[in-house]
């Protein structure tokens, strides 16, 4: 039911964005501070990674106060244990579709996200495991953030939180974990905001 609802919201926001005013295209790059959340994630620490990709904005109002912001981002996620003897590295294509409020130099954004796992590996001691079939290939979640944007320059600097609603796997014998991610992101919109 949750997946169906999220998929419906995703499609609805995409259709609204397509009917809105012409898009502004940009790029986004930054640092990730990733970890796992859930019942079995207490003994795992966060890891650093990065994200990069394309972003666009479709103005809903004539003054661009409200916009829809779909993105396509490559994003590194994962976690490690305290002694760095066990490390999970996962690579995703994240597709958030965010509602964005442009309030002067401040902006606020929030919305659903679908993520597609590209690959990754698990390092345990001196062994590397490349077979990650027990992790789902697709997950659903949400993103919310705040930042500062410079209208004339087209630059923005923001922080964002991404949380998965979907578990990383469906196997009851494996840990109950979800991706949990903080992002520090620098964006550039071609032609200004």
UniProtKB/TrEMBL annotation:
<feature type="domain" description="Outer membrane protein beta-barrel">
    <location>
        <begin position="20"/>
        <end position="161"/>
    </location>
</feature>
<dbReference type="Pfam" id="PF13568">
    <property type="entry name" value="OMP_b-brl_2"/>
</dbReference>
<dbReference type="InterPro" id="IPR011250">
    <property type="entry name" value="OMP/PagP_B-barrel"/>
</dbReference>
<feature type="signal peptide">
    <location>
        <begin position="1"/>
        <end position="20"/>
    </location>
</feature>
<protein>
    <submittedName>
        <fullName>Outer membrane protein beta-barrel domain-containing protein</fullName>
    </submittedName>
</protein>
<dbReference type="InterPro" id="IPR025665">
    <property type="entry name" value="Beta-barrel_OMP_2"/>
</dbReference>
<keyword id="KW-0732">Signal</keyword>
């Amino acid at each position: 039911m949750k997946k169906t609802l999220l998929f419906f919201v995703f499609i609805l926001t995409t259709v609204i964005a397509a009917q809105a005013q012409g898009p502004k295209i940009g790029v986004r790059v930054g640092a990730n501070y990733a970890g796992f959340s859930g019942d079995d994630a207490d003994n795992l620490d966060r890891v650093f990674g990065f994200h990069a990709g394309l972003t666009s904005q479709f103005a809903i109002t004539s003054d661009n106060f409200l916009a829809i912001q779909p993105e396509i981002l490559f994003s590194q996620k994962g976690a490690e244990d305290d002694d760095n003897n066990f490390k999970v590295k996962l690579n995703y294509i994240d597709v958030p579709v965010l509602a964005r409020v442009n309030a002067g130099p401040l902006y606020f954004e929030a919305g659903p996200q679908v993520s597609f796992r590209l690959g990754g590996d698990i390092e345990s001691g001196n062994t590397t495991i490349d077979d990650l079939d027990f992790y789902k290939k697709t997950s659903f979640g949400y993103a919310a953030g705040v930042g500062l944007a410079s209208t004339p320059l087209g630059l923005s600097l923001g922080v964002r939180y991404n949380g998965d609603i979907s578990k990383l796997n469906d196997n009851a014998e494996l840990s109950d974990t979800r991706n949990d991610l903080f992002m520090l992101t620098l964006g550039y919109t071609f032609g200004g905001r």
